[in-house]
Write a structure and sequence with these properties.
FANCI_S2; 52 helices; 2 strands; FANCI; mainly alpha; DNA polymerase binding; 1255 residues; single chain; FANCI_S4; Fanconi anemia group I protein
Length: 1255
């Protein structure tokens, strides 16, 4: 019966017309369809599709997609094929594509979702879609347009469709491009929303869910790629590598600090790992693509690719053994790679090298060749590769079995490329010849070798003896036991073409030896602690004797060096350095020798500090005196270096220090940085701090006792803690800053840094000591000397606070270091009675992380802030403000607002005349206040600034009555601070307007892709944006009334121009596109327009006019550049204002609401040629009406509807600023409508005219 329906329709058309056919179609659509009838109707509809209009076609498709849930799975592919055929014939293409994508992306499968049958059906449908796109490319455009328009269309099936469409040549770039753009946009939106304070929490949560949804959809599409959809595997590989290449330089895991999302890099690596495990056809392509990109890309771009190879090696070692030949081809280019890339490549292949003797031997061959290259960077990489191989051997021996025998991804025995074997011992001895060659290389190569030897001892403590035996002959070249000058430091430098370089880093050598001796006390070298992993092998008696002799020789040498340095005279020692070179070269040699000597002193201090922790009380007194002596020698040597170099000396400026090479690549870190390994360990610095605290208490007690007995101290000079304070704090700061530069997997990190949070409590005690101002010198000293000591103490306090700031920042970035703040709170002795109730309240917070941060702020930072403010320590106050800001931004809204209110209270009740300190406190007050309180506070401060700076109608005040922090000394810096905050908000608005544009497009085109989900509506989002812009208007309105100086005035012009540009974009988005219904602007938007016209536009014209009057009166040359800069800012500002008003005129016309009734005609046209005769003619014709008056009257309904509005409209724009053609422009202009290029404006003699070309 249904088969004759098309013929019946043809007969009815001929006899009764289309009305009867339409009636029958309506009855058919409204009736209930069984699954068989649905399939039959889809197959028949193409025969009478010309009888169906668009409305009925949309209803028909809704009926079909609603009933597809009841259709048998085996019938779905043919049903979709019929729908695609209909779409290719022009039957509602958009609705067909949208329905298919959303059906298989969300509702398909039901209880069988995820089964192999469902996946096979989806795979067949993908093949149909791919074939349909090849036949009709317009279907591919519909798929791409659907995803481009709304992110909510993205699901696992949509991604599969895009990947399938990408197999069509003409859509290869566009399909993958839109998928990449959508994914990266989701990440950027989440990053922005997370850091933006004024966006609603619902929108932030939605942005996070969008990223999670995209990641899950993409991973699901990859996981299901082996069920009838193998044709998309090549595009998945291509897309994954494109994502890896899209990573920006630097720390790409900056945002992904939680487990909520993976991040671009981890997502790409997981996709490729899945393909590598599942699809044999993809393995060769992944390896080849990795090889090609490593050899052709920039070094920074290579790091993620090498990290991918590392993951593949670790998760699928036996599968990677099949591709050893390709990896060997990659190693052939070792000498041509960037140094760090070559090092990281060998480190990534280490787990595979442990299983493949062939790959190990080939790597050794490549490294041997590299060691004989002329390039320093190649030899440096080869040195690192040598120690990677040696450490891999030690690790394999320590494990005693195959590292990956328990791997779930292990291939069968028949798939093994070769039989993995445990490498036999002796690689250190085997490569000792290459290591001997390193001893005759440049200084940086030697330093890397010393670090590698120390890593070897850490991995295998029994290697300590052979390492010392290896180093002893080389060490004796620079140490003479019987000579007067035991250290021949002059042999450590070398002059090349007039440039002096450090050829032997003797300090690094001594640091290596000292660390090995500390790790292996005498008699325990061959009996390592059971808690330390090691591999035991027997030593002959001769070898044991040799190792003991080396250990004894080094121990005696270090003691003699220590005694020699006690008696050293720096001037005589450095003066003995002679040579045949010129005076300048000789001076450079002495500087380099002094640098080496500084490093040796640091090694000695580290040794003494380590011995202090285990010494008895009597021994401690002697060690403390030795310690202070060496510190004084170190400080005098650094002062000598500063005077020789005439500027502050930096170690890296004189010699190229060796980089810290990571044995594994730090995830997310693509930067190739270099940093010197510190000689002082965390435990040593903590011990030094404890010593300084002990010495300070001892000196204070002796000073008090002496003053009570009215006598001097004993003739033996007491040790002064201030003498070692600078040394401790300087090295602590360098130590903390270098902590993040060393990879977590580097063995040296544990040795040198250990638990760096242990530095917190003694450092805080030092801060309390320096802040308290206790008498660290006797009262008998002269006043001048006391003043110098107070200045030193203040400088040390500043340095200690900087150290604390860096340490707190590290703890906030590492969740496992939260114990630092708890330790700091526990040792705090500050009392602040006003915050006792707050402390009790915060102690009851359930969340431990929030409670710890809050207690640290209340118990430590705020009392410290108050005491420093009372003592007028303004530079130190800036550091405390920075710490408060960093911690406060991580607190919830309630706690953050309380700190913001406290900061505002400080601004109101404390007089601060230091401009930098005032700026930091104001920034703290505004930043810790949640919107809209932040801009309300900024507006209140701007009003007080207006009173202090003065205006045309008011005089200046010395100090603000409401905010004591605002005075003549601080007004300029506070103005700059608020302007900077406003600039940040305006930059945020740029992103927000783009999102508003997407909301507008979706609402205008009536796209509803997720009917069952709640989303932030465009109206709610827009009103939030308009409210934020309204607050910005209020702040800017205060600035345009001030008497601003030149930098602030110019900055204000630029900010206003950017802000008006955003206002114009908001206004343009309110104009409906062609064919869409025009909506009435919301009340929030109307309020924004009214406020802008009244409080900003009119005053800003007066502000510009005043600036121009100042230009006319300026004659000096110093103002010439200022006038030139302002002549660039002012025309741009005027143009943006007029562009904004142009869109308001068009919006007023289409919405029938006069939005410019509060506007005033602009009078400032510094770039406009004004004809005085024309002005006279206009005065002679007072009855002349602007062309816009008629249109305004029409919009208001009748001439009587508002005479005042008509008069206001006359003041809005003249015919000179808006031509009649501008009124007749279509409301559906493109996005760039009205945007006149800057070059075109210059060519038009700087006259802004509205024409058809503008729109």
């Amino acid at each position: 019966m249904l088969d004759i329906l098309p013929a019946c329709f043809n007969l009815m058309i001929n006899e009764n017309g289309r009305e009867s056919v339409g009636f029958i179609l309506d009855r058919v659509i409204e009736s209930e369809w069984s699954k068989g009838l649905l399939v039959k109707m889809v197959s028949l509809v193409r025969e009478f599709m010309h009888f169906i209009d668009k409305v009925r076609a949309r209803e028909f498709l809704e009926k079909v997609f609603k009933g597809m849930r009841r259709v048998d799975l085996q019938d779905l592919p043919s049903l979709v094929y019929q729908l695609l055929v209909l779409a290719s014939k022009g039957f509602n293409k958009k609705e067909v594509i949208e329905g298919v994508v959303m059906f298989f992306g969300s509702e398909f499968g039901g209880s069988k979702r995820g089964s192999s049958i469902v996946r096979q059906v989806e795979g067949t449908v993908l093949l149909h879609v791919n074939f349909a796109v090849k036949q009709d490319p317009s279907l591919g455009k519909e798929v791409i347009g659907l995803v481009k328009l709304d992110f909510r269309a993205l699901n696992h099936f949509t991604i599969s469709v895009l990947l399938s469409v990408a197999r069509v040549r003409r859509f290869s770039e566009s399909s993958l491009g839109i998928l990449k753009t959508v994914l990266l946009t989701a990440y950027r939106d989440h990053k922005f929303a997370k850091n933006c304070k004024w966006l609603p929490d619902d929108f932030k949560e939605e942005c996070l869910q969008n990223v999670q949804k995209a990641e899950k959809a993409l991973l699901r599409a990859v996981n299901e790629s082996n069920y009838g959809r193998e044709h998309i595997v090549p595009t998945i590989v291509q897309f994954s590598f494109q994502l890896l290449e899209s990573l920006e330089d630097g720390n790409v895991r900056e945002l992904w600090d939680s487990n909520a999302i993976l991040g671009i890099e981890e997502l790409s690596i997981q996709m490729l790992k899945t393909l590598f495990e599942v699809h044999e056809m993809a393995r060769n392509e992944i390896i080849e693509q990795s090889k090609f990109r490593i050899l052709s890309s920039k070094p920074e771009k290579n790091i993620p690719i090498i990290r991918l190879l590392g993951h593949l090696v670790q998760s699928n070692p036996y599968l990677m053994l099949e591709h050893v030949s390709r990896l060997k081809e990659l190693l052939d280019y070792f000498v041509f790679m960037h140094g760090k890339v070559a090092t990281h490549l060998v480190a990534a292949l280490v787990p595979l090298i442990k299983l493949s003797r062939d790959l190990r031997d080939y790597t050794i061959l490549v490294v041997r060749k590299a060691m004989f290259r002329r390039e320093d960077a190649v030899r440096l990489s080869a040195t690192n590769a040598i120690f990677n191989l040696i450490l891999a051997e030690k690790e394999a021996k320590r494990e005693g079995s195959f590292s990956f025998q328990d791997s779930s991804s292990q291939a069968s025995c028949s798939q093994h490329a070769e039989i993995p074997c445990i490498m036999d011992g002796g690689l250190f001895q085997e490569l000792s010849g290459l290591l001997q060659r390193c001893l005759y290389q440049q200084g940086e190569i030697k330093e890397v070798m010393y670090h590698g030897l120390l890593k070897l001892v850490l991995a295998d403590p029994t290697s300590g003896g052979p390492v010392l035996d290896f180093l002893l002959p080389h060490f004796r070249c620079f140490f003479k036991e019987d000579a007067d000058v035991q250290l021949e430091i002059s042999r450590c430098t070398k002059s090349l073409s007039g440039n002096v370089v450090i050829e032997e880093p003797l300090d690094a050598l001594l640091s290596c030896v000292s660390s090995i001796l500390l790790l292996q006390p005498h008699g325990k070298a061959d009996c390592p602690d059971s808690s330390r992993p090691y591999f035991v092998f027997s030593l002959s008696q001769e070898n044991e004797l040799g190792s003991d002799l080396s250990r004894e020789s080094f121990s005696n040498a270090l003691l003699k060096i220590q005694k020699f340095l006690k008696k050293i005279n720096l001037e005589d020692f450095l003066g003995r350095i002679q040579g045949d070179s010129s005076t300048s070269v000789l001076e450079e040699e002495r500087k380099c020798c002094a640098l080496i000597l500084v490093g040796i002193l640091e090694v000695v201090v580290n040794t003494i500090a380590t011995r202090l922790s285990e010494a008895t009380d009597i021994e401690k007194a002697d060690l403390e005196k030795e310690l202070v002596g060496f510190v004084n020698l170190h400080e005098s040597l650094e002062k000598d270096l500063c005077t020789r170099l005439s500027t502050s000396i930096k170690r890296g400026k004189v010699r190229a220090t060796a980089p810290v090479m990571a044995s594994n690549i730090e995830p997310g870190n693509n930067r190739l940085t270099q940093e010197r390994v510190p000689y002082l360990t965390t435990s040593s610095l903590c011990q030094l701090m404890q010593t300084a605290l002990k010495l300070s208490s001892t000196e204070c007690s002796k000073t008090i006792a002496a003053s009570q007995h009215h006598s001097q101290l004993s003739s033996s000079k007491p040790v002064k803690c201030l003498q070692i304070m600078a040394f401790i704090l300087n090295h602590s700061l360098h130590h903390i800053k270098s902590y993040l530069t060393m990879a977590k997997e580097n063995p040296l990190r544990t040795l040198i840094y250990g638990e760096i949070k242990l530095m917190g409590p003694p450092l805080l005690k030092l801060i309390f000591l320096l802040k308290s101002g206790k008498k660290l010198v006797s009262e008998e000293k002269k006043k001048e000397e006391k003043r110098i000591k107070d200045e030193d103490r203040k400088g040390y306090l500043h340095l200690a606070l900087v150290c604390m700031k860096e340490l707190v920042t590290i703890s906030l970035q590492n969740p496992h270091m939260t114990g630092l703040l708890e330790d700091l709170v526990s040792v705090s002795t500050l009392e602040y009675p006003e915050l006792d109730d707050k402390y009790e309240e915060d102690s009851r917070i359930d969340d431990q992380r929030i409670r710890t941060k809050q207690l640290f702020v209340v118990k430590v930072l705020k009392p410290l802030f108050s005491e420093l403010l009372a003592q007028s320590y303004f530079h130190e106050l800036e550091i405390i403000s920075d710490m408060l800001l960093v911690i406060g931004e991580q607190l919830p809204r309630k706690q953050r607002n309380s700190h913001g209110a406290w900061s505002i209270h400080v601004c109101k009740n404390n007089v601060i005349k230091n401009s930098k300190a005032a700026r930091s406190v104001v920034a703290l007050a505004i930043s810790l206040s949640s919107p809209p309180s932040d801009l309300i506070a900024a507006q209140d401060m701007a009003k007080e600034l207006l009173k202090v700076t003065g205006s045309e109608t008011s005089d200046t005040a010395e100090v603000s009555e409401s905010y004591s922090i605002i005075n003549q000394s601080t007004s300029t810096s506070i103005i700059s601070c608020i302007q900077k905050l406003i600039e940040a908000i305006i930059v945020d608005m740029d992103w927000a307007i783009k999102k508003l544009n997407i909301f507008t497009l979706v609402s205008q085109r009536s796209i509803h892709l997720s009917r069952n989900e709640e989303h932030v509506t465009g109206l709610e989002y827009g009103n939030n944006l308009y409210s934020r812009a309204e607050e910005v208007v209020k702040v800017l309105s205060c600035f345009v009334s001030m008497n601003l100086k030149e930098p602030q005035a110019e900055h204000l012009l630029r900010l206003s121009a950017k802000f008006y540009k955003h206002l114009a974009q908001m206004s343009r988005l309110r104009i409906a596109s062609k064919g869409c219904k025009q909506l009435i602007p919301s009340l929030a938007f109307q309020k924004l327009v009214e406020l802008t016209c009244k409080q900003l536009t009119v005053p800003i014209y007066n502000f510009v006019a005043e600036m121009q009057r100042e230009q006319e009166n300026a004659n000096s040359k110093c103002t010439a550049n200022k006038i030139k800069r302002e002549n660039k800012c002012i025309p741009d500002l005027i143009y943006q204002i007029e562009d904004y008003e142009k869109y308001l005129i068009r919006l007023s016309k289409v919405s029938k609401i006069n939005l410019l009734r509060h506007a005033k005609r602009s009078t400032s046209r510094d770039f406009k040629i004004i004809d005085s005769r024309k002005i006279i003619r206009e005065e002679d014709e007072p009855n002349h009406k602007p062309a816009y008056h008629a249109s305004t009257t029409a919009e208001n309904g009748s001439p009587e509807s508002g005479d005042n509005e008509g008069n206001d409209s006359e003041k809005v724009l003249s015919p000179q600023s808006v031509s009649p053609s501008a009124e007749e422009e279509s409301a559906s202009d493109g996005e760039n409508g009205g945007a006149l290029p800057h070059a075109k404006r210059v060519k038009r003699d700087r006259v802004v005219l509205d024409s058809d070309d503008e729109a």
